[in-house]
Structures are given as structure tokens and as C-alpha cells.
From TrEMBL:
InterPro entries: Aldolase_TIM, TIM_sf, Triosephosphate_isomerase. Keywords: Cytoplasm, Gluconeogenesis, Glycolysis, Isomerase. It is found in: Cytoplasm. It comes from Protaetiibacter intestinalis. PANTHER family: TRIOSEPHOSPHATE ISOMERASE (PTHR21139:SF2). It comes from the Bacteria. This is Triosephosphate isomerase. One of its GO terms (molecular function) is triose-phosphate isomerase activity. GO terms for cellular component: cytosol. Its main location: cytoplasm. Belongs to the triosephosphate isomerase family. GO terms for biological process: gluconeogenesis; glyceraldehyde-3-phosphate biosynthetic process; glycerol catabolic process; glycolytic process. It catalyses: D-glyceraldehyde 3-phosphate = dihydroxyacetone phosphate.
Length: 258
């Protein structure tokens, strides 16, 4: 089992060539990071659909996983413009982001849609990166209540399988700074308890996303299982810095377990 999970979504920021160059740099960094190579850090990247196959090729042999940014709730059929989770699994994609705040806000994805997509991902062997988080800045307790409700609703009828829950307070996405550590810690601790108690979800983890970058993992320490990065991993050097912090955290966790 990984000790720390670090993911990056490129959203729709990069063009094809820039994404290819970035993936090649990530592959280099992954290959030079022993904790990625030995599986203590689970590293995944989520480029756009046309970039999935080149990304799989770029990171081959480095243990970096490739995630899609979304997937359909159906395996096949008359769903023009959708991408099947079965086809994603067939090409070697291992994970899929679901319920991201931008999909909920801009494309009207409801909890019911996210639940249907989560079930579809799991029945096709994909690990859902299930994005949850409150829309307005409220107390950590209220944030936990609404995020926990989103998790419960997404997995209520889904087949068994591991989850990566990404706690992303909507107000901290695309912001200059991440949510304060004192806020995040309450929510991620609560979500970790929740997922640990869910039947059939062994190995599930809770990561933080929303203006995350170098320095944050060291601050959050044992309060999270990792980070889900956006803009602040566009610079490969910043991702390398986060992986250095993730390595320190993985080492510390191993020390605790030894
Ligand atoms: O939404 C995010 C990752 O999915 C976070 O994006 P930013 O780090 O760019 O705010």
C-alpha cells in the first residue's frame, strides 16, 4: 500500500505539445524518486483525453499512474461525446477523477450523476478520485458534514473497491492560497474516519486539493494521505519539491510502523 498519494490534474490548461513535454518531465522526476519507484508514493497524472495514450507511453515503467479527468456513467452505447470507463480501463488508464467542483458547477453534475459515474468506474476496475468539498467558506465542522454527505452519496450503491477521496473546498480552488491547515485537518480527519468505516473500501485514502503546492504537505503532515495538485504543479520543479516532501512523510510513516 502506498504511504502517500500525490496527483496532478492538468485540467484544460495545456495544449497537446506542452502536455507531452510536461509528462516527459514528470516521467524523469518519477524515475529519479525512489519512493515512487518502490511504490511508497502513489503518483498519478490526469491530462485531457487526447493526451491519455501519449501520457501512458511517457510514464511507462515509472509506476506513475494515468487518470482521466472524467468518465461516463455507462459502459457503451449511444452517448455521443462521452468516454466509456470500460475503454479507459482497456487502454491502461487506472484512475478517474469524478465529481470535480468544475464538473459540478459548470456542467451541472449532481450527486446522483457522480454516484452513477462512481459505480461505473468501480465496476470497470478504475480507482475513483472522488472530489468533494463545500462551496462556501463555512466552519470545518460544516465543511466535513457536507463533504461526508457527498462521499456517502457517491458510494452508496457502488461496487466494492478502493477510493481516493480528494477533499477540495471549492473556495480554495484556483485561489492564491490553499485552505488553512487548521480547517483542512478537521475535514480530512473526519473523512478518513468515514472511509475507514465504509465496507469494501480497504486501502482508501483522503488527499487535499485546492491551490496546493510545495510546502503544504510538510505543514499538513499526518493530517492527510497526500495532495491533489493543479496549477502549482505546472512547473515540474514544483512537483519534484512536493515529491521530496512526500518522501519525507512516507519515511516518517514507515518509521512509525516499524
Ligand atoms: O482543482 C484542483 C485539482 O483538481 C486544484 O486546482 P488548483 O490547485 O489549480 O487550485
Amino acid at each position: 500500500m502506498p504511504q502517500v498519494t500525490v496527483g496532478v490534474s492538468l485540467k484544460m490548461y495545456f495544449g497537446h505539445r506542452a502536455a507531452r513535454e510536461w509528462a516527459a518531465e514528470v516521467a524523469d522526476i518519477a524515475a529519479r524518486t525512489p519512493a515512487v519507484a518502490d511504490g511508497r508514493i502513489e503518483l498519478f497524472i490526469a491530462p485531457t483525453y487526447p493526451q491519455l495514450l501519449p501520457a501512458l507511453e511517457a510514464v511507462a515503467g515509472t509506476r506513475t499512474r494515468v487518470a482521466a479527468q472524467d468518465a461516463a456513467a455507462h459502459d457503451r452505447g449511444a452517448y455521443t461525446g462521452e468516454v466509456s470507463p470500460a475503454e479507459l480501463a482497456e487502454i491502461g488508464v487506472g484512475m478517474v477523477e469524478l465529481g470535480h467542483a468544475e464538473r459540478r458547477r459548470l456542467y451541472g453534475e449532481t450527486d446522483a450523476v457522480v454516484a452513477a459515474k462512481t459505480a461505473a468506474a468501480l465496476r470497470n476496475g478504475l480507482v475513483p478520485v472522488l472530489c468533494v468539498g463545500e462551496t462556501e467558506r463555512v466552519s470545518p465542522e460544516e465543511a466535513l458534514a457536507s463533504s461526508a454527505a457527498q462521499v456517502r452519496s457517491a458510494v452508496a450503491d457502488a461496487p466494492a473497491g478502493r477510493l481516493v477521496v480528494a477533499y477540495e473546498p471549492v473556495w480554495a480552488i484556483g485561489a492564491p492560497e490553499p485552505a488553512p491547515v487548521s480547517h483542512t485537518r478537521v475535514v480530512t480527519a473526519g473523512l478518513r474516519e468515514l472511509v475507514a468505516a465504509l465496507p469494501g473500501r480497504d486501502g482508501s485514502v483522503v488527499v487535499y486539493g485546492g491551490s496546493a503546492g510545495p510546502g503544504l504537505l510538510a505543514e499538513l503532515g499526518d493530517d492527510v494521505d497526500g495532495l491533489f495538485l493543479g496549477r502549482f504543479a505546472h512547473d515540474p520543479a514544483a512537483l519534484a519539491a512536493v515529491l521530496t516532501e512526500a518522501t519525507a512523510l512516507a519515511d516518517a510513516r514507515e518509521g512509525v510502523r516499524a
